[in-house]
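[job 0412] stage=complex_fold ligand=adenosine-5'-diphosphate status=START
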Amino acid sequence: MKNIAVYPGSFDPFTNGHLDIIRRAHPLFEEIIIAVAINSKKSSLFSPEERVEMIGKVFKGWDKIKIDTFEGLTVDYCKEKNSRVILRGLRAVTDFDYEYAISLMNKKLAPEIETYFLMADNEYSFVSSTIVKEVARHGRAVSNQVPDIVGDALTKKFSV
Ligand code: ADP
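[job 0412] stage=complex_fold status=DONE, emitting structure tokens
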């Protein structure tokens, strides 16, 4: 069975923190699927299609990285893709409660699927999509927090 990890998230937008998690997980798996969660109840800045396109550009030429969208439960998506690993990143303690609760629920729903956590690197532990959007909305540069493609898309989004 191929060693496939699913990295689910909103990625609205994809940041250097997300990128760091992928870079570090890259040698550990034969394939990593970055799975953009479609959540109609959550309002987003970028459409799922825009997010997939941007992330695709970031990982152009990375053969092991696939980008997809999914709706519904992450464990169901993992089963569909024959993956037994959910990859998540952990920043400050504020992430912990939520991530722990979700991982326990996922374990109940699908005991054969494990959640692997990578601790955020010091440099990215305060990088968040929400803060990046807020800063960009007010016309300030976020170039050290997001890939160039994402920075350009943010500038474009807020200049119209
Ligand atoms: P969510 O899945 O809650 O919508 P995100 O799309 O922001 O969250 O993030 C997806 C995953 O990446 C989550 O596990 C989140 O904790 C993790 N993550 C977000 N930002 C960072 C960062 N700066 N460093 C490491 N991991 C991060």
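The two ends are 48 Å apart (CA to CA).
[job 0412] exit 0
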